[in-house]
Amino acid sequence: MSKEMKKVIILGSGGLKIGQAGEFDYSGSQAIKSLKEDGIKTVLVNPNIATVQTSENMADKVYFLPVEFSFVERIIKKEKPDGILLGFGGQTALNVGLELDEKGVLHRNNVKVLGTSCDTIRATEDREIFIKKLNEIDVKVARSQAVKSTEEGLEAGEKIGFPLMIRAAYSLGGLGSGIIKNKTELKKRLNELFKQAPQVLLEESLLGWKEVEYEVVRDKENNCVTVCNMENLDPMGIHTGESIVVAPSQTLNNAEYHGLRTVAQKVVRHLEIIGECNIQYATKGGDYRVIEVNARLSRSSALASKATGYPLAWVAAKLSLGKSLPEVVNSVTKSTQACFEPALDYVALKIPRWDLKKFKRVENRISSEMKSVGEVMALGRSFEEVLQKALRMLNVNAAGLTGDVPQVDDLKKEIKFATDKRIFALAKAFQANMSVNDVNKLSQIDPWFLDRIKNIAKFKIKLDKGTLLEAKKLGFSDEQIARQTGKTSDAVRKLRKNFKIIPVVKQIDTLAGEFPAKTNYLYMTYHGTENDIKRGKNEVMVLGSGPYHIGSSVEFDWSCVQAVQASAELGYKTVMINCNPETVSTDYDICDRLYFEELTLERVLDIHDVEKPEGVIISMGGQVPNNLASDLDKNRVRIFGTSARDIDRAENRHKFSQLLDDMGLDQPEWRELTSKAEAKKFADKVGYPVLIRPSYVLSGAAMNVAFDGVNLDDYLEKAAEVSKKYPVVISKFVEGAREIEIDGVAQDGDLKIYALSEHIEKAGVHSGDAHVVLPPQKTYLETIRRAKKRTKAVISALNITGPFNIQFLAKNNQIRIIELNLRASRSLPFVSKVTKYNFAKLATKAMLGEDISGDYNTLDLNYVGVKSPQFSYSRLKGADPVLYVEMGSTGEVAAFGEGYQEAVMKSILATGFKLPEKNILLSIGKQENKEDLLKFIKRLEDKRYKIYATEHTSDFLTENKVHNQKVYKIQTNKKPNVQELLEKGKIDLIINIPTKYNRAEISDGYLIRRLATDHNISLINDQQIAKIFINGLCNLDLKNMPIKSWDEYENLV
Amino acid sequence: MGDFFMLMKNHKSAKLVLEDGSEFEGKSFGCNISNDGEVVFNTGMVGYPESLTDPSYAGQILVCTYPLIGNYGVPKGKDKFESDGIKVRGLIVSEYIDEYSHWQAEKSLGEWLKEEKIPAIFGIDTRALTKKLRTKGVMLGQIVINGKKMEKIEDPNLRNLAAEVCIKKPKINGRGKKTVLLLDCGVKENIIRSLVKRGVKVKQVPWNYDFSQEKYDGILLSNGPGDPMMCTTTILNIKKALTENKPIFGICLGNQIMALASGAKTYKLKFGHRAQNQPCLMEGTQRCYLTTQNHGFAVREKTLGNEWKIWFRNANDNTVEGIRHKKKPFMAVQFHPESTPGPEDTEFLFDEFVKQL
Predict the structure, then answer these.
(1) Reduced to 3 states, what is the DSSP secondary structure of residue B269?
(2) Taking the model in full, what pTM does it have?
(3) Are B179 and B302 members of one domain?
(4) Which of A454, B17, B184, B288 has the fewest beta carbons under 10 Å from its own?
(5) What percentage of chain A's residues is helix, strand, coil (to nearest 5)?
(6) Same domain, B183 and B286
């Protein structure tokens, strides 16, 4: 490398969204570590404050700023790095990197792109160049054409023939892609896509072909290794991110496996990729097509890395610096080379986690567009075993493939047109005696997979030793066995232990046992007779968070990593259990022993039986481990921190509300539900709206606000579905209140450290979807004092040791407790990084008995931190982008500012929000909202923004002498019409304030919000945000907001 | 009950007994006979039809570390195999898949094993077994089905296995202006295919064939089973060829024989290299290739003569993976450039050889 690298800038991926999730925390973290080892200073740009990569011990400098051209340009000018890494922050980082290159920023500032060059990236991103390049080396691609206009697209469509595949160029996770059956559909889709992308791709349909991918690494010496191949159970037509994926491939023979491997290397060499990339194929009967090449770390590479134990991201970073593969030692085995291809002696299987229920009206078919929000990976030694393990890991109320699983109504339809439930439908089809052949015809899934599924579906469990062992080998849980045989799962466990049917621990060593390897990477299987490891000593076991889903994302992974590190700091050996391949907690260098395993009671106890740790930390991984508290306690597992009994007193809505009443602490009027009639009576008494909440849930699953009796009935049923074991509580929904939260750590019932933050939105918006401000800007001191006092009382009453989060409603200095969680909360990394006290580490140390008393200043800061929700509505066709009591965001970002407005604006921009150039459309529900916003709208007019308004809003503005252009509702067909305006791209920003928090009906407001989302137009849907945003827009010099790194924000005290 | 469970019930109990007395119990899915051999493991994840027919496995019981075997059945047509039939003495796997699925398959692996009278066991903790072999070194063992253990297992390495598996009389493969003399010590079919594909006439002769009166342009010294020291005639014949200048290319056993003919020594590795992911560095460069390997013996580096140099080296354990004469066109590799099964990274070596003819 000609230029010496002393300082390198790394672009992160920003907030978690569908198609771009926690996997980039893994890849970025590995890259940072890899560079630091070589003595290179690292500068990270990533507003995702919940990530591990933005922790204090990672990069030398962290910028919590938007990963966006102008911000990054200014950071480059300030930091003067020698090099830049573009491949570790997903499509976001890649796109920004290309822009920096194209506009000469990198050249002017003498910043070298490390690893794969921008020209190569462009060759993989621009379909036309890509196909040309592959044609040069006679590699087959699908017949396709890239088009730049609708007319051109229609012509190309005729040439290629229907059905065909469509997708936008330069997109992540296949945004806007789908199967087009005819010309009319094509025209509609082309119009939509050209709003978001300059180029659209049309392709020969490969529907039903097998989908296979390879992860390839290449160095500057032209060495190429293929770290892993993976096969999708779901054939072409379903996005690989939406597919069940198995590694290694199961149905390819040697010629196919190595034939495609050779093609992969040929392609990667020809494109001159340096570092890591992913190549996707469709294959059928010996023929193949290359689908695409991703010249960066991806979700698949994270999966491949976890599936094989090969540290892909870490190696890719080394190669980007110009090292050769033989120079890099495999940091997992320490005994082999990075220049080597892992041999697996197990099977790895990934299943996506969807959360479609959370979105009203969303299209729940899965297809070529990504909708899943997370994934799990199971390891085992048979396909049946990993399939059932993975289904339990998903945490979607499935005991496995059979037994207690989600309902499917129309089997054949479900199998042919897959939704998130297809896998269960396949099993049910075999139980209903459909043949493998018939199911294959409907689904096009390879019979090999279907036969395995059938094995599980048709298995008859009996309690003799032989059958029981077979059942366990097929992945049946004690609970599934118990249900089929009418026993309790405890009894089954006891029985099988008597029979000595116990799972064994196996290591993932990347070389199938060929050499001894120093690996800490473990899983359990019933296909074995011998443990690879012996019991550890002086261990703390930390339970992870499971799959990312709405309400549980990278923040809990951060908390778990902190817990592991804090335990190690106190001299303990650490054991981590988690099953999410997109996490840092499952990296090989985090803990002493990693069990890539289920977070079910059965499996945690199995691991506990082997390791016999000092105790278990269950309060860092979110709701999944927290829910195990009572059962673990019953099984005499020591839980560090707050006792299981006290956790139950806080988590059980009834007990908690009772406790508050007993203590005389204010809370909204509440009642535990016993019957619908009683619920109605109560609602009539306190008056609608009322809030319905099941117990032991996260992110407000099945939480709803009922505005009338019909709503109420409907929602009560949903709540009962979600949480069968626990009571449902209904309470008065307080309108117009603000929400404040305290995150803190207590020890033996004493409050040790806390941070109080406030929401910008009014109460009624789920706390995960709200903008959160720290330190509070609008909360009265008196309110703060009262909140703290009550917090102390509750902590003491529950004798809390460890992390907690308490939420209050505040209105006119009156505060009411609405919720308490005795675990790390979503906001824990945010408050830790804003206050610069690591709450998660403090909490861990408190739980392990270390005195953490100290002087902590969390209020008197010389800056403001603001956290914003990151939504993924553009990927969820049909879903209503509106705020509600049930959480809808998929991630979050945060930014710092010297003042409140600056922090808010940076934070909002960090979600990818585009500032309006000129035209703003207003559609404001409710008279009082219109009046409240009037003076802000006038300021927009003063600043010469052109204002468009829907009918009533327009009339109101005209009455109030605000110049505006009236536009008509979509359903009226009058002109100018909202739909036409939006489709023609005339509007830069829409402020749409819904009348009430109800997502059940199709309103014109819904259509506007949806159109905005589909056409990638910035949308504000909350009154309070509208106000602060307009203020920021009009007051601040937005192009010149200060560029400061995290460490430049200093505490006042 | 599905087929799977019928299958489970229909399988006889079987066990693998190692020479140290340890036993691994499972069920039979091949031919219900007992058999003995040297127990070796292979870490490849695909290619069981190729491995099973590889003559280098003669005398050996093969343990697959990849746990699911049988997935894509057995293909039609011998052109997909490495010899005329199964060469292993037995097969040990964790999970056997009887309900195969593949567009080229014509029968299940179990059916094929039965036809070829080869015993096989599934339901074994192959990782535990592999760890044992890796720690204690390869061992003799026997598959016991339906009967008593044999008192003593004969070590196949004490026999001339190459002589047993090689061609019995000369045979011509392919057409071309140049003729390669293939010294067959148990050659894999794909070596022949790789040469024929390049427009060369291949005259395949037995291991001990006296070629001093032959007309040829180059020699390919094939792979094969067992201890290279058993191939005494081949070594002597090659010794003579080394005094001439015609290109010689050795593969696997051929590498060892070339080394022995040059005066170097070979030794037995503790548990050998049997995998599709062995990284080999080309000496003096940073170029590293992934290779297929199947050998229990290796060339001792220190004994290599002055006129020779190390060509390739194993990146994991630094053992010799290829040697080359400093002046003459003699070269040999310990790995399998013809792959099958395995990565095709080093196929270019055939081009290099053919160019020299």
Answers:
(1) strand
(2) 0.94
(3) yes
(4) B17
(5) 40, 20, 40
(6) yes
